[in-house]
Amino acid sequence: MKNADPVKPPKYAEKIISLFAQLHNRLYILGDLEEDFAAVCRKTGVFYARLWYRFQCLQVFPGIIKYKLYGSTVMLRNYIKIAFRNIIRHKGQSIINIGGLAVGMTCSIIILLWLVDEVSWDNTHENGEKIYQAMIHKGTGKIFSSTSIPIGPALKSEIPDIEDTARLFFNRSNFSYKETQFPETGAYVDPSFFSIFSFNFINGENSALYRPNSIIITKKIAQKYFGTEDPLNKVVNLGGNSFYTITGIIDNPPSNSTFKYNYYIPFNVFVKSDHDPENWLRFQTRTFVLLNENSTSESVSDKLVDFINKHDSRGNPELKLYPFLDLHFSAWGTGTKDNTYILGFGAIFILLLACINYVNLTTARLSARAKEIGMRKITGAVRTNLITQFISESVVIAIIAQGISLALVSIALPAFNDLTSKQVGLWDSPMINIWFIFIPIIVGVIGGFYPSMILSSLKPIDIIKGSILFKSKKSNQVYVRKGLVIIQFFISIIFIISAVVINNQLNFVLNKDLGLNNKNLIYMEIPGENQSSFNALKTELLKHPDIMKISKMSELPVDIWKRRSGLDWEGKASGFDPGMAELKIDIDFLSTFEIRIIEGRGFSKEMGTDLTEAYIVNEEAVKLMKMESPIGKEFSCPTHSGMRKGKIIGVMKNFHMSSLHNNIEPTFLFITNNSHNYVCVKLTESNDHTNTIKIIENTWAGIFPGSLFKYTHLNRLTERMYSGEIKFKRIFNYLTFISIMIAILGLYSLTMFVINGRIKEIGIRKVHGASTGSMVKLLSFDYIKWVIISNILALPVAHYFMKKWLDSFAYKIEFGILIIVSALFISVMIALTAIFYQTFKAARANPVDTLRYE
Amino acid sequence: MKDLSQAEETFLIAIWHLKDDAYGVSIRDRILELTGKKYTYGTLYGILDQLVRRGYSIKKEGDPTSERGGRRKLFYSLTENGFLALRNSYEVQRSLWNGINKSTFENGFKI
């Protein structure tokens, strides 16, 4: 029985349909459905009718959506068509617009790729989170990233939380197979290395290194030495007298991997060749540790304290575990968080610059679109429609710019990879590639927002009257545009100031007096420890007039890595065990590098004890030891044959024994017969040493047969030590250049706009007697004022970033007046070039022409 | 004269049949009767709009009824263009199917 109140269909279903069917047919559809509902109700009762209705609800959608989508794309298709027509009609402007945007996007994309590479460093290792590197803390706060040889296996067997350990030691040898021979870099590793870290094996398995005398090579090496032959099970020769069988081939390491070695050989070989492998106090190899799934580094730290005390507690060392994944950005890695942040911000800024340019240029084309906008409004376009139109136009432009920039990136990427020694590829990471779709949309919407607001707000009446140029809104606009240009200059000046700082600092660092003479010196690595061969070499070479001195040493004096602890000296407080930098040398060392002795004397051939008991320390060491008169005081250092007791015979002037990032540390030298790795040869002053070097090479070949002669100029080494900074500087200079270009573009377009508006004013002034010169001044003064303001605003920001960067250097330039003034000067010059041509032309314009239609 | 698509043809014939009473529900039911095809209201109105756009039909609002919860009906009726289009379609059909009738199909498929 039907009640007086007719039964209604389910309310929610109705609401949903009305939401989706916002066509003009909505009410009719709802009405039809209600009729049907009533019919179904009579047939099957209310309950099933309601179900039926809900089902109908679902069925209605596809049709509605299909027509709704088609319907609402109609206008979009029109907008896109008009957008293309406009782009083609104003080719010049469009090229500048799209080009500027494309350049900005290219920069940002390249830097984005670089950032992704840096941030995803070493993420290919599955166990990454659980891998740590063991480091030793000494009481004085010195941290050694090398540990002693026995620590690895001991950790594994004694601490249950540690699942596995692997040691690694760098190796460089002549790698040869049949006739091909080249020096290659590789590493000694424990076979467990390949189960802790994840490597992709093309051939063989990750247990490959368990075989004695096995070797694992990379694909690159396989191709280099074997071509298309299968390298598996072939025998290669390392260093002339060691043979290894290839048991595995791995993929080339990706650009974001810490381990970029070309080959891996079993750690046992290194242990066998070492004369004191059980010593817990010699820190030589890197030890990596894999923790159990349930353990954390905190849970292990207590056990580590007991562990190290049990084995060797001299000097109160502390064994700590550092997460492997954090290493890249730490002092021992190759990345710097600072550089990453700075470049990241740089990219964002440049993109901002390009967007601002786009906004400026689009609003400048106002008058050209005025008629069209008027017509659209008259024929019924609502403001929202117009906004949609202009935003879609800018999205179209952004998409075109994106396409161009992707092409540009493909072209520029190889050069960029060279510059930064990475191998990033454009399509490497699909996650990033998806963004390529969103970026132009986001850029288009943001960039198009302001222009579309302005353009859509034009009133048809003003357009018809032709008075759009004289509306009061225009001055608002000019403020906004001036503001935008100030922002552009603000950003560019930050770049300029930073570039000035970075370039100056790098010049300073590369040219600073290091405290010793590193000119006209070449160095080579000595194969093997042979005192007599060296003597032979020395006598042979010194015969030559162009060869002044020869010396051998354990490390190069400008880049000393060795820190020795366990030292003793007269008056040392017990328990005080700082490390000092140690350098083992021969008698000619001091004169070869012209190191100055400021107290006492240098090593002398006459004093026999100089070979066995003498030490020379630097000024920092004297400070550390708190000695008033160090000459004659006792000093001893541990060597592998026990403590070498001796006396200090001289104090040398401080020289930079490592990169200028670090302070000069206390250093000591003594003469030994062996343990030397490098030979340095001092040549006469000359621009071209090739002849002399040939002679050295021939002599070398005679004395060290079978070993490849590879030399380097010592001042090149300094460049290599700062290679990271040099790359950074180059990238940064490019960015600065690009930002300057974009800012010039922006200023150029702004002046074009403003001058067009003021052309009548200039005409009137000239008629009243103003000279061309005063016109130029009038027009340009405004801009100079804004440039100076931008400079002032930019200063603190640039200062902040640069201070952080400079602080990574222990020796740095001052961020002083000179920098500020030069940046100001550069920016004013740039601004003037941008506006000069236009202001000059406008100032010279004949009032007759400009005032003709008044 | 552009040809009518299948759907358009079906709809126009249904509207023609229904004379004054062609609106959403009735059109849908009549099509179901005539061809056995079920159309949902979404597609239905879409095609009806297309017919109006093409000029084969015009629409006219009716009065609200309580049956429809107070909403109006929307009546569609044939225009002269629509009538001409139907005639054209009929003639094309006739010449296409000339000489073929039911018994031809009952004889089965032979080359």
List the helices and strands and how they pair.
The complex is a heterodimer of chains A (854) and B (111).
Chain A (H helix, E strand, L loop, with lengths): L10 H10 L5 H19 L1 H44 L1 H29 L11 E7 L5 E2 L6 H8 L3 E16 L2 E10 L3 H4 L4 E3 L10 E5 H8 L8 E4 L3 E9 L12 E4 H7 L12 E6 L5 H15 L6 E6 L13 H28 L1 H13 L4 H38 L9 H27 L3 H6 L7 H39 L9 E5 L5 H12 L4 E7 L9 E2 L3 E2 L10 E6 L3 H5 L3 E4 L13 E5 H7 L8 E6 L2 E11 L14 E5 L6 E6 L6 H14 L7 E3 H8 L1 H45 L4 H35 L10 H28 L2 H4 L4
Parallel strand pairs in A: 4-9, 6-8, 16-21, 18-20
Antiparallel strand pairs in A: 1-2, 1-10, 1-11, 3-4, 3-7, 3-10, 5-8, 6-9, 7-8, 12-22, 12-23, 13-22, 14-16, 15-19, 17-20, 18-21, 19-20
Helix pairs in contact in A: 1-3, 2-3, 3-4, 3-12, 4-10, 4-12, 4-21, 10-13, 10-15, 10-21, 12-13, 15-21, 15-22, 15-23, 16-19, 21-23, 22-23
Chain B lengths: L5 H13 L5 H12 L5 H14 L2 E9 L5 E8 L1 H17 L5 H5 L5
Antiparallel strand pairs in B: 1-2
Which structural category do the helix and sheet elements of chain B fall into?
alpha+beta
Query: Shape of chain B, please?
Result: elongated
Task: Please report the distance between the alpha carbons of the first and last residues of chain B.
Answer: 34 Å
Shape of chain A: globular
Helix-strand pattern of chain B: HHHEEHH
Structural class of chain A: alpha+beta
Calculate the terminal CA-CA distance of chain A, rounded to whole Å: 86 Å
Question: What's the total count of β strands of chain A?
Answer: 23
In helices, the fraction of residues of chain A equals 40-55%
Using only CA atoms, what is the Rg of chain B? 17 Å
Give the amount of beta strand of chain B, in percent. Answer: 15-25%
Question: Which chains have the largest interface?
Answer: A-B, 26 and 20 residues
**Largest pleated sheet of chain B:** 2 strands, antiparallel
